[in-house]
Amino acid sequence: VNENIRVTATVYNQCMNAWSKSGAENAALRVHDILKRMHSRHDKDPLEAPEPDTVSYNTLLHTWSISDDEQATEKADELIHLMEEKQRMNPKGAVIPNTWSYNLVMLTYANRIGEYGTAKAAEDWLLRLSELCVEN
After folding, report:
1. Directed axis angle between helix 99-110 and helix 54-65, to 10°?
2. Are the CB atoms for 52 and 11 separated by under 8 Å?
């Protein structure tokens, strides 16, 4: 084992970013699989395997925002809710949704051109973000 080389969250995030920018039809699913793999490895060996962080989740959100997948908005909603839940469970943890996280969810809706209800859903997320700002 080479102790000068480590697979960090940054390394995983770079790989996910490469898939996100690849233009591949299945890019969002590939990024999702890498995120799941990070979780699995971290759960098995938390001292050696990196935990996914906000950047990891935001990379997947970004990939959903540019995806043609019909379920992209649902997947983005699920992911941001998961991030919020992780923050509630561990307020000082590695996953804390930030302004960019919510912006990416709104972008996912914005990119669903011509789909009924997407503008309203994006506005709902804006209101949610505004409420969070007031709470903090």
Report:
1. 10
2. no
| 42/48 Cα distance (integer angstroms) | 7
Say what the pTM is.
0.93
Task: Give kind and range of the element (H or E) at residue 44.
Answer: helix 27-44
66-120: pLDDT as tens digits: 999 999 999 999 999 999 999 999 999 999 999 999 999 999 999 998 888 999 9
Sequence-distant (6+) residues with CB within 8 A of 28 are 60, 63, 64, 67, 69, 72, 75
- Indicate the Cα dihedral angle 132, 42, 47, 4, nearest 10°: -100
